[in-house]
């Protein structure tokens, strides 16, 4: 794929989640079975930080939605690096830099789809610094749950975690959204985001889970297979929450 990659375009969310009255035990509502009553933890001195990782199309946004529903009594902040990358790409187009040899992004358009190509990989380091800064602003809030969502080809320390403060990365839990490459390519093809199969097989072709185990330790990583039914995925997420 040369020296460029296309990141999944997913709308970032940073919002307060209001309470939801969940009842029943079927379908969607099965997820509301609380593994723990988080509102009854007076000793909780800081925000809960969960990293949602995996390829584009692996189900990160779906799991983020399930987590927002689960933590409906707390404020949930969701960051993915697309918010920062998108802002940088738009600023570059407005300034005219996108049309010069110093361009870091290239806009990509396809019928019914839109995305951007990253030409300068140093922006991936910069964006992780910015995500880290945003997370650190809320770490002391015991009423908050912070979800950090992004996709990379590897999750080794020198590529990812060195750009996060120790108080963020060392106290967090990690949920790896596991889906085979062909499934991810199929899902991405149905979205508005433009990521070619060639990019998916190139940049995201390697499974990132081994590098995540290596850098974070298997005991701190929960793997959720998202290729089954939604209730099956929901129960896997609940089991992961038991480890927090």
Q: What would you say this structure looks like, in words?
A:
This protein is an alpha/beta fold and 244 residues long. It has a single domain, classed as P-loop containing nucleotide triphosphate hydrolases (Rossmann fold), CATH 3.40.50. The chain is built from 8 helices and 9 strands. The chain has helices at 60-70, 82-95, 122-136, 166-169, 181-189, 197-202, 209-216, 230-241; strands at 5-6, 13-14, 48-53, 75-80, 105-110, 113-118, 144-150, 173-178, 221-225. The strands form 2 sheets. The chain has a 6-stranded mixed beta sheet with strand order 2-4-7-3-8-9, sandwiched between helices. Strands 1-6-5 form a 3-stranded antiparallel beta sheet. A hairpin with a 2-residue loop joins strand 5 (105-110) and strand 6.
Task: Give the DSSP E fraction (strand runs of 2 or more residues).
Answer: 15-25%
Strand arrangement in the largest pleated sheet: 2-4-7-3-8-9
Which quaternary structure do these chains form? Answer: single chain
* CATH fold description: Rossmann fold
Largest sheet: 6 strands, mixed
What name goes with the CATH superfamily?
A: P-loop containing nucleotide triphosphate hydrolases
Number of strands: 9
Helix content: 25-40%
The number of helical elements comes to 8
C-alpha termini separation: 38 Å
Instruction: Provide the CATH top-level class.
Output: Alpha Beta
């Amino acid at each position: 794929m040369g020296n460029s990659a296309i990141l999944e375009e997913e709308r970032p969310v940073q919002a307060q989640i209001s309470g939801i009255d969940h009842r029943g035990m079927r379908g969607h509502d099965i997820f509301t079975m609380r593994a723990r009553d988080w509102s009854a933890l007076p000793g909780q001195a800081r925000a809960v930080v969960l990293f949602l990782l995996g390829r584009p199309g692996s189900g990160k946004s779906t799991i983020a939605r399930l987590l927002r529903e689960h933590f409906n009594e707390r404020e949930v902040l969701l960051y993915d690096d697309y918010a920062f990358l998108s802002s940088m790409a738009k600023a570059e187009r407005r300034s005219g830099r996108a049309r010069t040899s110093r361009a870091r992004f290239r806009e990509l358009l396809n019928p019914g789809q839109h995305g951007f190509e990253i030409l300068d990989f140093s922006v991936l380091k910069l964006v992780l610094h910015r995500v880290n800064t945003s997370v650190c602003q809320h770490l002391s809030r015991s009423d908050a749950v912070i979800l950090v969502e992004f996709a990379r080809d590897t999750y080794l320390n020198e590529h990812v975690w060195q750009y996060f403060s120790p108080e963020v990365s060392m106290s967090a839990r990690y949920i790896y959204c596991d889906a085979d490459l062909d499934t991810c390519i199929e899902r991405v093809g149905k979205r508005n985001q433009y990521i070619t199969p060639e990019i998916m097989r190139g940049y995201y072709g390697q499974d990132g889970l081994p590098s995540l185990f290596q850098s974070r330790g298997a005991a701190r990583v929960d793997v959720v297979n998202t290729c089954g039914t939604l209730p099956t995925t929901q129960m896997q997420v609940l089991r992961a929450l038991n480890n927090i």
